[in-house]
Design the sequence.
C-alpha cells in the first residue's frame, strides 16, 4: 500500500471510528439512565422522542448552549487545558484497538483498525506495542483530572483531584500486573496478535473441549483483578471517590460548566469503552465468534465486528448494572483493597502463570 | 526526509520545554514543562525505532514519576517562588565556565568528526521488545538484578525514614 492511499484510508477510518465512538458514548448515557431507572423501579427519560431516544441530542444541545463560565480565581491556561487533555488522551487509545480482520471496499483491502496495515501479500500488521500505548496514554490521562482540580482553586475540586490521582496511581499497578499473565500466554504486546492467538478451541489431552480458546479460562484471576482495577481507573462506582457528590459536591469538575464539563463526561465514558474493548480483546477472544456463512462477502467481513461490539456491549452493561447495585467504598477501604489485596494477588497470579508456562515449555 | 523533519520538530519542542522549565516561576508549570520534555523524548525514541523504550519512557517518566511530582506539589500547595537577583559566583564563575565547556565540546566535535566512529542502526528490529528482553534477561542478567535490588533498598530506606517516630 502506498503512502497516499494509506493516509486517505487512515483519515476515513479515524473519522468513522471517532463518530461511532462518540455516538456510542451519547447512547451509553441514555442506556445508563434507562437501565438504572428500571433498576430503581422508574422509567428514566421518556419525553424527548420515542423511549426518550433523542435525549442525548437534547443533552448535547444543552451543553453547547449553556453559558461557559470561567471563574475569576482559576489558573486560566490550565483550567482550559485540563478537559482537553482528558478527552484527547481517552480518544487516542482507540487508535490501536483492532475491531476485526480486514474489509475490502472497491478493490481496496484495509484492516479494521486505525493503526493496522495490510501489505501487498495480504499480511495484516499492526503496531507491535499496542497494549503499552494504551497503558501509557491512560497514565498521561491522569494529568487532566489532577490539573482540573488544582487549577480550579477550590477545596472540593482539589480534594477530588488529589483522591483521583492517588487512586489512579495506586490501581495502575494492579491493572498493569494483571495483564502480564496474558502476555506470558500469548508472547506478544500487539493487540491483533493477542486476539489471533485466541482463535480455535482449547484442546485438553488431545480432545477438542469445544470451549473457545479465550484467555479468560486460564486467567480468571487476572480477569477479575483487571476488572476491579479498571473500574477504579475510570473512577466509576463503587470506586467513584473522586466525585463523591455527598462529600465533595462534584469532585474535580465542580467549577466546570457547559462544554468543558461535557468533555470530562465524554472522557469518562470513552475510558469505559476502552476498558470494555481491552477486556474483550485480552480475555474474551476479541472478534472471534461463530461465522454466519450465508451472508454476502461485505457483510461477512463485518460479522467479526458484530461479535466484538456485542462483547463490548456486555461490559458496558456490566458497568451500568454495577452502578445501579453497589454502594460507594470508603476512601481508606479503597486504598487498603488496592495495595494489600489486589496487588499481592496480581503478583501471585504472575508467579503461578509463569511457573505453568515454564513447565509447559 | 519525514523522519528528519519530525526529529527537528520534536527536538525543538524538547529544548523549548527544557528552557520553559527553568524560566517558569510556578512549580506546577515547571513540572508540566518537564512532562513535555519527557513526552517529546519518547517520540524521538519512537523515530529511532526503539518502540519499547519509547512506551516505557511515556509510562514510567511522563506517566508515573511526573504524576507523583505534580501530586506532591498539589498536596503541599507550593506557591510561586520568589526571584532572587542571582548570585555573584554564578555570574563570575558559572557563565565563563559554561562558555568554555560548550566551546571545547563544540571544537572537539567539529575537529574530530573524522576520527569519531559512527553507530549504524541497520537491523530493522533492534528496538523490539523481544530483543531487549533477550539482552536484559540473558546477557545482562546480573547487572539487571543488582539494579532491582538497589531500587528495593531505596524503597526500604524511604519506608524506614517515613516511619521513624518523632
Sequence:
Amino acid at each position: 500500500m502506498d503512502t497516499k492511499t494509506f493516509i486517505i484510508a487512515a483519515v476515513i477510518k479515524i473519522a468513522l471510528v471517532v463518530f461511532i465512538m462518540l455516538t456510542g458514548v451519547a447512547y451509553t448515557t441514555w442506556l445508563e439512565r434507562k437501565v438504572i431507572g428500571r433498576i430503581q423501579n422508574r422509567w428514566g427519560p421518556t419525553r424527548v422522542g420515542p423511549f426518550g431516544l433523542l435525549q442525548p441530542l437534547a443533552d448535547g444541545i444543552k451543553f453547547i448552549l449553556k453559558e461557559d463560565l470561567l471563574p475569576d480565581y482559576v489558573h486560566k491556561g490550565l483550567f482550559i487545558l485540563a478537559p482537553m487533555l482528558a478527552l484527547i488522551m481517552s480518544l487516542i487509545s482507540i487508535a490501536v484497538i483492532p475491531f476485526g480482520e480486514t474489509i475490502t471496499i472497491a478493490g481496496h483491502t484495509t484492516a479494521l483498525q486505525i493503526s493496522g496495515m495490510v501489505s501487498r501479500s495480504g499480511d495484516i500488521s499492526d503496531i507491535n506495542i499496542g497494549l503499552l500505548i494504551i497503558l501509557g496514554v491512560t497514565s498521561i490521562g491522569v494529568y487532566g483530572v489532577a490539573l482540573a482540580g488544582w487549577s480550579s482553586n477550590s477545596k472540593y475540586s482539589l480534594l477530588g483531584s488529589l483522591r483521583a490521582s492517588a487512586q489512579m496511581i495506586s490501581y495502575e499497578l494492579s491493572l498493569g500486573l494483571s495483564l502480564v499473565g496474558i502476555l506470558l500466554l500469548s508472547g506478544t504486546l500487539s493487540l491483533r496478535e493477542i486476539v489471533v492467538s485466541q482463535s480455535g478451541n482449547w484442546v485438553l489431552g488431545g480432545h477438542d473441549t469445544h470451549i473457545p480458546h479465550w484467555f479468560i479460562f486460564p486467567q480468571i484471576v487476572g480477569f477479575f483483578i483487571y476488572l476491579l482495577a479498571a473500574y477504579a481507573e475510570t473512577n466509576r462506582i463503587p470506586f467513584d471517590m473522586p466525585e463523591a457528590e455527598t462529600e465533595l459536591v462534584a469532585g474535580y469538575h465542580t467549577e466546570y460548566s457547559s462544554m468543558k464539563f461535557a468533555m470530562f463526561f465524554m472522557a469518562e465514558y470513552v475510558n469505559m469503552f476502552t476498558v470494555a474493548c481491552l477486556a474483550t480483546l485480552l480475555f474474551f477472544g476479541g472478534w472471534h465468534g461463530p461465522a454466519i456463512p450465508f451472508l454476502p462477502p461485505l457483510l461477512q467481513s463485518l460479522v467479526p465486528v458484530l461479535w466484538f461490539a456485542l462483547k463490548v456491549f456486555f461490559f458496558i452493561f456490566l458497568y451500568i448494572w454495577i452502578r445501579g447495585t453497589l454502594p460507594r467504598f470508603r476512601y481508606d477501604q479503597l486504598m487498603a483493597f488496592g495495595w494489600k489485596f489486589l496487588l499481592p494477588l496480581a503478583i501471585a497470579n504472575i508467579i503461578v502463570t509463569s511457573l505453568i508456562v515454564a513447565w509447559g515449555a | 526526509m519525514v523522519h528528519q523533519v519530525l526529529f527537528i520538530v520534536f527536538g525543538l519542542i524538547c529544548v523549548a520545554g527544557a528552557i520553559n522549565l527553568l524560566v517558569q516561576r510556578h512549580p506546577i508549570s515547571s513540572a508540566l514543562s518537564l512532562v513535555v520534555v519527557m513526552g517529546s523524548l519518547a517520540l524521538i525514541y519512537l523515530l529511532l525505532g526503539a518502540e519499547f523504550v519509547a512506551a516505557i519512557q511515556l509510562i514510567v517518566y511522563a506517566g508515573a514519576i511526573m504524576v507523583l511530582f505534580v501530586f506532591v506539589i498539589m498536596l503541599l500547595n507550593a506557591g510561586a517562588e520568589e526571584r532572587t537577583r542571582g548570585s555573584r559566583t554564578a555570574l563570575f564563575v558559572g557563565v565563563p565556565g559554561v562558555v568554555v565547556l560548550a566551546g571545547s565540546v563544540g571544537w572537539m566535535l567539529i575537529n574530530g568528526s573524522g576520527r569519531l566512529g559512527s553507530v549504524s542502526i541497520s537491523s530493522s528490529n533492534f528496538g523490539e521488545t523481544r530483543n531487549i528482553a533477550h539482552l536484559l534477561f540473558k546477557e545482562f542478567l546480573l547487572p539487571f538484578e543488582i539494579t532491582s535490588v538497589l531500587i528495593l533498598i531505596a524503597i526500604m530506606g524511604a519506608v524506614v525514614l517515613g516511619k521513624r517516630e518523632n
User: Anything to note?
Assistant: Strands of chain A lie at 102-105, 108-111, 117-118, 124-125, 201-204, 207-212. DSSP finds 13 helices and six strands in chain A. The mean pLDDT of chain A is 84.
